[in-house]
Amino acid sequence: QEQRLGPGAVLLHGYALPRACALMHAIARIEAAAPFRHMQTPGGFTMSVALTNCGALGWISDRRGYRYSAVDPATGAAWPAMPPAFAQLATAAAAAAGYDGFEPDACLVNRYLPGARLSLHQDRNERDYAAPIVSVSLGMRARFLFGGPARSDPTLKLPLRHGDVMVWGGADRLRYHGVMPLQDEPHPLLGSRRINLTFRKAG
Ligand code: MD3
Ligand code: FE
After folding, report:
1. Which CATH number fits domain 2-191: 2.60.40.1220, 1.10.1740.110, 3.60.21.10, 2.60.120.590?
2. Distance between terminal CA atoms of the chain?
3. Cβ(137)–Cβ(109) under 8 Å?
4. Residue whose C-alpha is closest to residue 135's, from 100, 98, 106, 115
5. What is the ipTM of this complex?
6. Closest C-alpha to ligand 1, atom 21
7. Is 179's C-beta closer than 6 angstroms to any atom of ligand 1?
8. Which residue intervals define the domain Fe2OG dioxygenase in the entry (predicted)?
9. CA separation for the pair 139, 72 (Å, rounded)
10. Which of 21, 87, 109, 181 has its CA 20 to 30 A from that of 29?
């Protein structure tokens, strides 16, 4: 069912479940062309989350900052194309949440192993904040932190499970958010992993 989290934010429980198997096969192909890697933060830390990308633009981080790149910095080659099934799912989920015509040009694929976490941050490397963001959770359960417009605002802890899809836009677009350290509760299909797809209009 749908859970409204704010004026522009909706959690669609299990929305991606019918497509989960196809998504995992597509992720295996993306991973073969552009392997998961741990990027450096501008502050010199190594991210505990490993990532890769597909689509015209990919989110990257290094000592110079966070940004989008048309090429994989590890190889200099273009990121793998966004599988049509990915774009279709993101467009349909956005429409179900009230955002018609969402056409993502970037899909960040995050991989969490037990202990990996994502500290509280805002997504602000995109050109246009008018487009929503669509996020698809696969595999192990995560405790998502849903904050406010300021880092110091109180956070709500929200469980995200295999197949859950979140859509964020409008007034909720710049909320702080993060992911608590993952507990090892192996998933029947994915084992001790969590994969998150984040669809954005970045360019
Ligand atoms: C809430 N990834 O990669 S996106 C990220 O589970 C990121 O890997 C999360 O945050 C993950 O940047 C899931 C969820 C998300 C994205 C944008 C938001 C939540 C948001 C913008 C405003 C509020
Ligand atoms: Fe984020």
Report:
1. 2.60.120.590
2. 32
3. no
4. 106
5. 0.93
6. 173
7. yes
8. 103-203
9. 25
10. 181
